[in-house]
Amino acid sequence: MHGLLGSADDWLLMGPENSLAYLLADAGYNVWLGNIRGSKYSRHHVSKHVSHPDFWRFSIDEIALHDLPTMIDYVLKSSKQEKLFYVGHSQGTTAFFALTSSRPEYREKIAMMFAMAPMVYMNHVRSPLMRMISPSSRFYDNLHTELGHGEFKPSKEVVHTIGGNMCKKEIQCEFVCSNVNFVVSGFDTSDMEYDLVPVIVRHLPAGASTRQIKQYGQAVDSEGLRKYDYGTDINNMIYGQHQPPRYNMTEVKVPVALYYSEEDWLAHPKDVERLHAELPDVRDLFKVPTEHFSHMDFQFSKHAPQVVYKRLIESIKSLSY
Predict the structure, then answer these.
(1) N or C: the chain end with fewer CB closer than 10 Å?
(2) Pick from 205, 207, 8: nearest CA to 88
(3) Within a 13 Å sphere around the CA of 123, how many CA atoms are in the beta-carbon half?
(4) Which top CATH class is 8-319?
(5) pLDDT value, residue 127
(6) Would you state the pLDDT for residue 80?
(7) What does the H/E/C string look like for the chain?
(8) pLDDT tens digits, one per residue of 49-93
(9) Distance CA 24, CA 113 (A)
(10) Which residues form the AB hydrolase-1 domain (predicted)?
């Protein structure tokens, strides 16, 4: 499952020789690529048009508790299997951990979960956007108003403000600073093939709701991942309490591998290590040793096939049932 602002394309953009989806297929596995609600491949609704704000009134909670279990059930039914291996990046890990901490029946459907750049704890996040959209930020009120309540489509001015110093430096590709994915997640051309950058920009961002972004901002100030915070009055109506309930990571009783890196703006090592301490069944904790390896590099780095994917595929082979 792809990450924040991404789509299934992300697992394919490095081509047949290097993309994880192709490598898994070549290894003999049946590969299913999910698309989170609101991505460019998941914008149909029985009654709401994508241009209407009501279409975008969803958070990570709806993705985790409604969409993801439906996808898992569909894959298992279609493939006539009892369990599957789940590979998630970024938000794809958030949705998984929220689901399996809340619905015990889905723990039995997972052979193992591979989490790349897992985003659950956000207290040490370095992304300027996540810091600015957190409720304690002095920028919160203005940014909250600017972003609105529909699709996450920040203006060019907002993107450049978020980018800060990075957008003032001389970088190889001027268009990078107009792409919100890079300024949110961080960017270092040294770890990517130069020709791949314009390909990535053509496919990203692939869509997200503003609530998804705001829920991560809320997590920056919170002790852990919680359901979406609507404010005290609505929280009381929906949840029966002032604060939204927390997703309990000690309930994720599923074999997990955690892959993380030092330079990740969104999944800080300290936050990943805290997640590791709470998850009950971590089989592999792997910190990528490659220098300058950041959040998006798990899908786009020239080093990912050898450093990350090879390890992942070997783990699946050792566990295949």
Answers:
(1) C
(2) 8
(3) 11
(4) alpha beta
(5) 85
(6) 97
(7) CCCCCCCHHHHCCCCCCCCHHHHHHHCCCCCCCCCCCCCCCCCCCCCCCCCCHHHHCCCHHHHHHHHHHHHHHHHHHHHCCCCEEEEEECHHHHHHHHHHHHCHHHHHHEEEEEEECCCCCCCCCCCHHHHHCCCCCCCHHHHHHHHCCCECCCCHHHHHHHHHHHHCCCCCCHHHHHCHHHHHHCCCHHHCCCCHHHHHHHHCCCCCEHHHHHHHHHHHHCCCCECCCCCHHHHHHHHCCCCCCECCHHHCCCCEEEEECCCCCCCCHHHHHHHHHHCCCEEEEEECCCCCCCCCHHHHCCCHHHHHHHHHHHHHHHHCC
(8) 888 888 999 999 999 999 999 999 999 999 999 999 999 999 999
(9) 15
(10) 2-118
Q: Check residue 5 and give left, alpha or beta (phi > 0: left; psi -120 to 50: alpha).
A: left
The arithmetic mean of pLDDT across residues 164-187, rounded, is 53
Residue keyed to tokens 């709401």 = 48
pLDDT at position 172 is 45
Between these two residues, 176 and 147, which has the higher pLDDT value?
Answer: 147
Q: What is the pTM of this model?
A: 0.91
Task: Average the pLDDT over each of 72-76, 186-190, 214-218 and give the range with the smallest value.
Answer: 186-190
Which residues participate in catalysis according to the annotation?
90, 295
The predicted structure's pLDDT at residue 171: 45
- Residue 154: alpha-carbon gap to chain centroid: 19
Q: What are phi and psi of 58, to 5 degrees?
A: -140, 155
Closest CA to 219 of 94, 134, 95: 134
